[in-house]
Design goal:
The protein has five helices and six strands; from the N terminus they run ααββααββββα.
Length: 194
């Protein structure tokens, strides 16, 4: 009989080591969960890998951006629109090779921009189809939860108990016993549940 190991909590020394090596201080509620409940379970497991501390399922997240402040989605809308306006057009270049170089440079800038949208955050839970729940670890939004819906709508949205009253993002403890789908704006993704 193959029984999966129950994820264990971490010790204070392990949490302190992870924070030091990752260059972040975990939000209080998440830190308490790591120490008293579990370093995994229903959440992406924080564990020591050959490359140091990291979360399972977060291979696409960039370590070098983890200590940067998590940006509120409203903070980059203008920059995103400007980047879209700068997309190279074939008629603006003397030949296909020049266009290809310009487009490749623009595409690299777009990828960097997309990566920076989740700076300072970790995907705590994957929901399939490219959706995930993000925990902001750094900056003024540290300790709040966000929905990464960029796979279909190009948006990162706050998970909130009250979308009609300002959509204050939930904290880790508020989120922990709820389903992320239930904390999205009314009607959002109701047909997308996996």
């Amino acid at each position: 009989m193959n029984v999966a190991a129950v994820p264990q909590s971490l010790t204070e020394d392990e949490v302190a080591d992870a924070e030091a090596r990752l260059g972040v201080r975990f939000p209080h509620e998440y830190r308490r969960h790591l120490l008293r409940v579990s370093a995994g379970g229903a959440l992406a497991r924080l564990h020591r890998t050959a490359d140091g501390w990291w979360w399972e399922g977060n291979g696409g997240m960039r370590r070098d951006l983890l200590s940067a402040p998590f940006p509120h989605p409203d903070s980059y809308r203008d920059a995103e629109a400007e980047l879209d306006r700068r997309e190279p057009r074939t008629g603006d270049y003397p030949d296909d090779a020049a266009f290809a170089r310009a487009w490749s440079a623009w595409d690299d800038a777009c990828e960097e921009f997309e990566d920076r949208k989740t700076a300072g955050a970790v995907a705590l839970k994957e929901h399939g189809c490219g959706f995930s729940t993000l925990l902001a670890l750094t900056g003024p939004l540290a300790g709040t939860l966000w929905w990464d819906g960029r796979a279909t709508c190009d948006l990162i949205l706050p998970l909130s108990l009250d979308h009609t009253g300002g959509a204050r993002p939930v904290t880790f403890d508020e989120w922990l016993t709820r389903d992320s789908w239930d904390l999205l704006p009314p009607g959002w993704g109701s047909d997308s549940r996996a």
